[in-house]
Amino acid sequence: MTDLTLGRVTADRERLLALLQEYGVYLGVVVLFLVNTVFTPHFLSTENFRTQAVQVAPVLIVALGMALAIGSEGVDLAVGSVMALSTSLLSLYLGYGPGIAVVVALVGGAVVGVANGSLIAFVGVQPIVATLALMVAGRGLALVLLPQLKDVHDPAMAELGSGDALGVPYVVLIAAALALLVGFVVRRTTFGRSLLAIGDSRPAARLAGLPVRRVLILVYVCSGVLAAVAGVLATARLTASDPSSLGNLMELSAITAVVVGGTPLSGGRIRIGGTVAGAVLIQLLTTTLIKHDLPPSWTQIAQAVVIVLAVYAARERGKR
């Protein structure tokens, strides 16, 4: 093989990897959609689309917060536990009215975010260690507050979980609005630009005079609040609070959606559109496996494979 031919092969390989990094998640969504259209009965029904959209909404909301954390060159492993904590707080304070209960649940998520951000920004603990500690502590606290499953009987919460506007479920509308909001924050605000600068190079951001500690704390507060929103919506949809199971492995799904969507684990870049597509991809993958009678454990294996492939593509592209 001549040097010219080898150079062309290398260039083609790099071009393919770049395309996979930029558009692979959208291709994956299209492929899974077509596969289910052909092989999954009733996949194209309106009821199925509604079900899929409602199920993907909490994953997307959590993934938006995870994208902020990963964009700052961190990670938030506590998101599943925050969902559990929010459902416990919601159930405990529902007697004071749904509005107060939701606010308390969101404040709980913010408090966990402050704890995560403070450990990272002021103490210097690695994000994976800090959020792992809060993942364990948060789930434990949720179970202390609400040791067992409790039914949620409230008309307002039931309407939030199952109601719709012009045929679109409220949970889907909320998820879409939050995606647009986070996208605007990342692209159009000083906070978003500072976040990306910190993720790209924290020492350089400090030298540039950016409020690194404040931004990091706000990143994890946002992640905690978004996880709490997902917990509230999931509780409203299920009409029950179950801190022992709600949010289990949600961090895996959120990380998968973010990484597959093209946000690098090295930080400095966030792709909100890709994150949305990544969440849809995970939902379609889960649906495909379940509809064809494969055990749920295969979904976790498939997600792990997808993460490895996405990280490999990003790593190879980063070498160029």
Automatic annotation (TrEMBL):
Q: What InterPro entries has UniProt attached to this entry? A: ABC_transp_permease (IPR001851)
* Protein's UniProt keywords contain Chaperone: no
One molecular function GO term is: transmembrane transporter activity
Q: What is the lineage of its organism?
A: Bacteria, Bacillati, Actinomycetota, Actinomycetes, Kitasatosporales
What is the protein's given name?
ATPase
Question: Gene Ontology terms, cellular component aspect?
Answer: plasma membrane
- Main location group: membrane
Membrane-crossing segments per the record: 23-44, 56-72, 92-112, 119-146, 166-186, 215-234, 296-314
Q: Where in the cell is it found?
A: Cell membrane
Q: Keywords on this record?
A: Cell membrane, Membrane, Transmembrane, Transmembrane helix
> What is the membrane topology listed in the Swiss-Prot or TrEMBL record?
Multi-pass membrane protein
